[in-house]
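May I ask for a sample protein chain and its fold as tokens?
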Amino acid sequence: MYYEFLRRGSENIPIFWGGAEAFNEAEKQQLMSQRLRSQFSSRTSWEVLKPIHERFKNKAWEPSILHWMTYLDLNFRLPELLLMRVDKMSMGTSLEGRVPFLDHKFVEFAMSIPSSLKTKNGDLKYLLKKAVRGIIPDELIDRKKQGFGVPVYEWLFDKLGHKIREDVKEFCNETNFLNFKEIESVTNNWRDHRSWYLLNLALWWKQFIKQEEPDVL
């Protein structure tokens, strides 16, 4: 991944491409079939992000790295990943989630604050922590960040690992998108979380392209 960061920097491309990257460009070239590798050898995921970055540069009052990271996550990771998880978990328990920090007026205000006030001496969320200090207990403010703990490794070690190997193998056999020998080294390693992404690709293809209902465990 460090090589990928150096490549982006040398080409004057922003290093941050999103908060949930599954495969870097070198890995994608390695895992693709020879046909796709030849077809897309000169193309990268930056083509998808470039219009968003141009829009950011043209409209941002302070085009800092921090604001770019925030802007990109607001466009991609927040609606497609984090809010999706909140919706599924809350609806699964007959609850309705609220996200007051995403009120559009509040977001506009937050984006108008200089980056230098948002972080200080390496302390992330400095301004937010200072604002709620004395209202929220210090042990909550200062504790280590904790996100959604999805037990992917445990799933891969159990029945899901076998299902991934079967479904991804079927996907590789019936298409000419991926190099199965390279893919197999990923799916046979239960510690490699990239298997989870490959399973989602295989299930998406099976349901929406092949038009078969995916099997469930």
Observations:
- The radius of gyration is 21 Å.
